[in-house]
Amino acid sequence: MNRQSNSKKPKSRVVKIDSEQSWDFFITQANNQGCPVMVHFTAAWCVPSVAMSPLFEELALSYQDVLFLSLDVDDVKGAASKMGITAMPTFLLMKQGTEINKLVGANPNEIKKMIDGFVHQFRSFKIPVETQLE
Predict the structure, then answer these.
(1) Residue 105, CB half-sphere, CA atoms under 13 Å: how many?
(2) Disulfide-capable partner of 42 in 35, 49, 61, 129 (CB 3.0 to 4.6 Å)?
(3) Distance CA 19, CA 75 (A)
(4) What is the pTM (predicted TM-score) of this model?
(5) C-alpha distances out from residue 90 to 2, 7, 58, Å
(6) Taking residues 109-130, what's their average pLDDT?
(7) What is the per-residue pLDDT across 61-112, written as a single tens digit (0 to 9) for each?
(8) Cα-flanking dihedrals φ and ψ of residue 29, to 5°?
(9) Which DSSP string do the residues of 27-83 spell out, in sequence order?
(10) Confidence (pLDDT) at 11
């Protein structure tokens, strides 16, 4: 049997944070660009957290104007501590370095509602581009 895979898996839009330096870099870049950030605080040993990763990847593909970060709390303890993360999974929505919303637990519907509500609000505050030809 000849198996061909014509469908390529899309490149991940989720940035894996592996150090305090990468955390600081991506947060600073997002702040400078006015880009909202959605962070998945996870742990390899936390089954519900690992189970949420595919959903997080899917959301990252759907919301192109949001920076999606994934951070293992055991690898980058300082950033997790600085953000007050005490349970996994925790999903944190930030704008300009400020927490906008936080959800603790593996609740796909609530995560979707949280990001969708914020992005809708964020997009509605953007200045519309003039489309008049005259």
Answers:
(1) 3
(2) 49
(3) 7
(4) 0.84
(5) 43, 32, 17
(6) 77
(7) 999 999 999 999 999 999 999 999 999 999 999 999 899 999 999 999 999 9
(8) -60, -45
(9) HHHHHHHT--EEEEEE-TT-HHHHHTHHHHHHHHHH-TTSEEEEEETTT-HHHHHHT
(10) 80
Distance from C-alpha of 133 to C-alpha of 56, rounded to nearest angstrom: 40
What is the reported pLDDT for 126?
52
Confidence of residue 8 (pLDDT cuts 50, 70, 90): low
Picking from 96, 125, 110, the residue whose alpha carbon sits closest to that of residue 37 is: 96
Peptide bond into 36 cis (omega under 30): no
Question: At a CB cut-off of 8 Å and minimum separation 6, what does 64 contact?
Answer: 13
Pairing of strands 37-42, 90-95: antiparallel
